Amino acid sequence: MAKPILVTGGTGDLGREVVRLLLDDGVAVRVMSRRPRPPEVSHEWARCDLRTGEGLAEAVDGVSAIVHCASTLGRGDEQVTRNLVEAARRAGSPHLVYISIVGIDVIRFFYYDEKLASEKVIEESGLPWTVLRATQFHELVARASAVQRWLPVTFMPSGFRFQPVSTGDVAARLVALACGEPSGRVPDLGGPEVRTARDLARAYQRSVGRRKPIVPLWLPGKASRAFRAGGNLTPGNATGVGTFEEFLETRV
User: Fold this and answer.
1) Domain CATH number, residue 70
2) DSSP string, 30-51
3) Which domain holds residue 233?
4) Which of 63, 72, 181, 189 could cross-link with 76 by S-S, CB 3.0 to 4.6 Å?
């Protein structure tokens, strides 16, 4: 029997898509989650807490690769990744594939700092590894407008541009990487278009049948300067195909 691929964060937006694509390809999958296994799920399930390590040894046992999609959103990613790496080493050194973010080495922001530190942990782990950096997901960009739906205006950061990418495009790349040989740091993955924050907010409003003023909000600090300089963009790697409007048509 083929060894399964473990997907951490397998119940999140990206993790669910990775799991779906792997199953569609006939690949054995084990989902890692803090949640109990739903009754409708037939594939392997590992209930685990990456922070405490509870259930971690069992989760990584006998897997061929790990697609690390779990995140604490900057509240301990480095330690969580270190826990995973140490358990993976004891389990026989499976291929570790990590999803990271474009620009974390030039944008000084607490969440990005945690992701960059996690990359270093993986690179120095002694495990066979692959790291993919992607731009912001469509879901995140849409959420920035959605959370302001009850306000009379929508605030968007002045001078910011984004290159939103489909979770499906990112998941497909992760699946290909996990089923291939360890490749180290691979080319970044960006969405097909670089758009201003204002333009994306207007597209969201159109999709939900609203129209209200979009107010530019000047954000101070080094991180904001790096965003305005395009540190979060990778126009030379605009290999994602799903557009923001296509996402809005199907998800909003």
Assistant:
1) 3.40.50.720
2) EEEESSPPPTT--SEEEE--TT
3) 5-251
4) 72
